[in-house]
Design a protein that fits this description.
The chain is mainly alpha-helical. The protein is built from 22 helices and no strands. It is about 60% helix and about 0% strand. This is Protein HGH1 homolog.
Length: about 350
């Protein structure tokens, strides 16, 4: 299509006649990939029109959301959309009519758009603070971030909305978890359900959805950069993250009986058809998370105690991926190195010396 004709087509997405709008916006969708610059004309006028159209007729809204998802990879468009507080408030409010209506087919597009918008750093301040009454069926509290977490958990199998799985919210959480205040939220036990948010999503590290597994793996890794939370990450009474990091990277290899008996119960006697995650990048993410959790001495000691090394050794041997092999080597170097004595050990040694003199 000629540039002038394409410009005219995009101009029609704001036409007052809904039939004209529908034809124009559905025809414009492919050009959001092949000719994205056309939507940036006139100081992003078409982007502003698209933000209005997300509350139009469902078919028009679907195309508007699709175009916005395609275009928000562009920094200028992302800034325009993510810093528009009125639009952000609108989509977070619209989310719940979208999400609780079982016949609504646009819910996953909304999740994809939120995932893109979360790449704008300042958006997390709005998302952490925003409150609204949760749909009764969601059984959540008033914080939007908790509502989205509960939606991600309860909607994974189509039971909340038969046309949506909300998998892309995993990418949304992963980007938010790069920020300290979000990391703290994800590790804090919530008053309304007495649960730690990370415990809700950790169960998806072996889910069939690649998007969900990948996003959850990245969320856990990013949250783990908050070193003060490592005791909670490793405690069986809190997040208890180790089984959910180790199972996806475990294959069906046989281990020395002594090593196996010291492994976590979930890692013992795995079935002969047990397979590692099919994506080496996800395996890499889990190994990097394990390495982050060796930042503290208790983390290193626990991994030695539960025989993480043999599992990493087999992963290094069987996964043909340079990044995975290098990450395995880094983790093994940490686990196998000698430790400096602790303060308690030094004091005990000094007492022994005094007694021997």
């Amino acid at each position: 299509m000629a540039s002038k004709e394409l410009q005219e087509l995009v101009d029609f997405i704001a036409h007052p006649n809904p039939q004209v709008r529908l034809g124009a916006i559905e025809g414009a969708v492919p050009y959001s990939l092949s000719n994205p610059e056309i939507f940036k004309a006139d100081d992003l006028r078409h982007i502003r029109n698209l933000m209005v159209l997300v509350r139009d007729h469902p078919r028009i809204a679907k195309s508007a959301l699709t175009i916005l998802v395609n275009l928000t990879g562009d920094r200028d468009v992302l800034e325009s959309v993510a810093t528009n507080e009125q639009f952000l408030s609108l989509i977070l409010t619209l989310s719940y009519p979208f999400f609780k209506d079982a016949s609504e087919t646009n819910a996953d597009l909304m999740a994809m758009l939120l995932a893109n918008l979360s790449k704008w750093e300042s958006i997390k301040d709005t998302l952490l603070k925003k409150q609204q009454k949760a749909p009764e069926a969601l059984n959540s509290d008033d914080l939007v971030i908790n509502q989205l977490l509960d939606l991600f958990v309860k909607g994974f199998d189509g039971s909340y909305n038969k046309d949506a799985n909300f998998d892309y919210l995993a990418y949304f959480f992963a980007d938010l978890a790069k920020h300290t205040d979000v990391q703290e939220h994800f590790i804090a036990r919530q008053d309304y359900d007495k649960e730690i948010p990370l415990t809700k999503i950790k169960v998806f590290t072996e889910h069939k959805s690649h998007i969900r597994r990948k996003g959850v793996a990245s969320t856990i890794k990013n949250a783990a950069f908050e070193v003060s939370s490592h005791p909670s990450f490793l405690s069986e009474d809190d997040v208890n993250i180790l089984p959910y990091l180790l199972l996806p990277i475990a294959g069906n290899e046989e281990y020395d009986e002594d090593d196996m008996m010291d492994m976590l119960p979930d890692l013992q006697l795995l079935p002969p058809d047990k397979e590692r995650d099919s994506d080496p990048e996800i395996i890499l993410t889990h190994i990097e998370t394990l390495t982050i959790l060796t930042t503290t001495r208790p983390g290193r000691d626990l991994m030695r105690q539960v025989k993480v090394y043999p599992l990493i050794r087999e992963t290094h041997l069987h996964v043909e991926h340079e990044g995975v092999k290098e990450a395995c080597e880094r983790l093994v170097n940490v686990l196998m190195r000698d430790e400096a004595p602790t303060v308690e050990e030094i004091e005990e040694d000094e007492e022994n010396v005094i007694m021997e003199v």
